[in-house]
Amino acid sequence: MITRNPSLTDQVKAHIKEQIVNDEFEDGRIPPEAALAEDLGVSRTTIRDALGKLEHEGAIFRKQGAGTFVNEAGLQIRSRLEEIWSYEQVLEDHGYTPSVQILTDEILTVNDDTGAALGLVEGDEVLVVEKLFLENDKPVVLTRNRIPATLLADDDRSHDDLPIYEFLEEYCDRRLSYYVSEIIPVAFNTDQARKLGVKRGTVGLSFVEVGFDQDNEPVVHATSYFRDDLLRFRMIRRRTGT
Amino acid sequence: MITRNPSLTDQVKAHIKEQIVNDEFEDGRIPPEAALAEDLGVSRTTIRDALGKLEHEGAIFRKQGAGTFVNEAGLQIRSRLEEIWSYEQVLEDHGYTPSVQILTDEILTVNDDTGAALGLVEGDEVLVVEKLFLENDKPVVLTRNRIPATLLADDDRSHDDLPIYEFLEEYCDRRLSYYVSEIIPVAFNTDQARKLGVKRGTVGLSFVEVGFDQDNEPVVHATSYFRDDLLRFRMIRRRTGT
DNA sequence: AAGTGGTCTAGACCACTAT
DNA sequence: TAGTGGTCTAGACCACTTC
User: Fold this and answer.
1) Which of A106, A148, B22, B193 has the largest count of CB atoms under 10 Å?
2) What domain count does chain B have?
3) Distance (Å) of CA B89 to CA A181, B99, B182
């Protein structure tokens, strides 16, 4: 595992991104694609793929016939919903020092919701891990992940403090590919409020998600709760059709 | 305007999508890219671009070395946050018959929030349009859009019942390119609750968004409120880096 | 008219999966 | 080993912006 050397496209992307953050482009204008291709000794296709990724993540914007430009506003956006794969990373990006508490870690028989989400039947077992993410000892995120017990290679679960996607790769040989997430506003119940350190009935955001692996198999059912006063999500909604 | 004929890629995409929904592929297996290119008389690049878009919107998934397959679960997802450009469309997709009420339609001097979002200064004017979207006479979505008055070509605002992106194209000559959206859980206040036909304090979702045009200029500041019991959003969160 | 990004082609080679 | 998707190249032409 972990043998992948970055593709040419990703190297080019990183290179241009670095120049952007170092403010090395006059007037926020990025050189023509042909010039970049020449300078870096790669084809224009590779340049375009790299620029396409940068555009997608809001770092640049392009105007046909005019040029490619740095997107100053886009660079400022933090906590982009599309990019979240580890809440510790999110809290770090916010400038916090994150820590993690494992509240629950046990194998249980599956309930109806999780069974439906993961394609399991009554009596099947799942590993349930409940975690609390804190910044400077203040609770921000509460998560509950459920993984089919059949995916666990052995009984070694001493590393369940890893982000879920790393745990799945290291100990289940599954690569998390994407989540289907449902976005739900809630008033925290007694239990949630106590764990998050707020008053019962406080309004917050929650996600109910199913994670799929490289074979498009559901491998994790997750529910997360967020303190809206400490962490707020953003996203870029881009026009596709029409 | 409206001169654009669909690109080859988009035609191919539509063609394959149609075959998918008509269940014309054996075992949900999509033919190899080389075969598709040959059959349709286009290059493999065009096929790959089309398949890439279909993968991105969750209609298919690909496994290197193995093939391309229909994503049955992905096809079922409705109300995808990334794809929303008209709430009437969202309600239609839900199988409802939508209608729209215009609650407010006036030119006001800008407030601080909107001014900051749109880069306006005190005293500048904005067109404020508040709308209520209903399904079978039941309120579901409440929106408030603010557009700089300087963008309005003339005083004809008789068509502000159009979706905001169409209004901007038709009457302001601006093409809405993307939104930066903040996702906020709320307890509805008296005014919001009355308009949405729920009890004060009911929990719901809200978006605060800024829309940017083809020149990356902010052109609309929008706030939206949703009845969580009638409309719930989903999204596909895809892994990009690592 | 010149310059820039957008689309499309034809072909090569690599990485991975299946058998 | 054969077949499939992933990456990369070199080049052509088109659509649009700018001057």
Assistant:
1) A148
2) 2
3) 21, 11, 21
- Give Cβ neighbours of residue A206 (< 8 Å, ≥ 6 apart): A183, A184, A185, A186, A223, A224, A225, A226
CATH of the domain at A34: 1.10.10.10
How far apart, in whole angstroms, are the C-alpha atoms of residue B222 and residue B210?
6
The encoded tokens of residue B94 equal 């839900």
Q: Alpha helices of A94-188 — where are they, by DSSP H? A: 112-118, 164-172
Is A91 in the same domain as A71? no
pLDDT digits (tens, 9 = 90+) for A169-219: 888 889 999 999 999 999 999 999 999 999 999 999 999 999 999 999 999
Question: Do the domain assignments include residue B45?
Answer: yes
> Does pTM top 0.70 for this prediction?
yes
* A123 inside domain: yes
Q: Is residue A151 part of a domain?
A: yes
Domain that includes residue B61, residue range? 8-76
B97-149 pLDDT per residue, tens:
899 999 999 999 999 999 999 999 999 999 999 999 999 889 999 999 999 99
Give distance CA A65 / C1' C6 (Å): 9
User: Do B213 and B100 fall within a single domain?
Assistant: yes
A238 and B178: CB-CB below 8 Å?
yes
**DSSP track, B50-107:** HHHHHHHTTSEEEETTTEEEE-HHHHT--SBGGG-S-HHHHHHHTT--EEEEEEEEEE
Pair B223, B206: CB distance under 8 Å: yes
Which residue among B76, B95, B124 closes a domain? B76
Q: CA A216, CA A175: separation in Å to the nearest integer?
A: 10
Report the footprint of strand D: residues with C-beta closer than 7 angstroms. Answer: A 7-9, 41-46, 49, 63-66; B 3-4, 30-35, 44-45, 48, 62-68, 214
| Closest nucleotide C1' to the C-alpha of B34 | D4
Closest nucleotide to A9 by C1' from CA: D7
Return the pLDDT at B3: 36
Please give the distance of CA A155 from its chain centroid, rounded to a whole number. 27
Find where tokens 């304090």 sit: B201
A191 in any annotated domain: yes
The answer for residues whose C-beta is within 8 angstroms of residue B167's C-beta and 6 or more apart is B159, B160
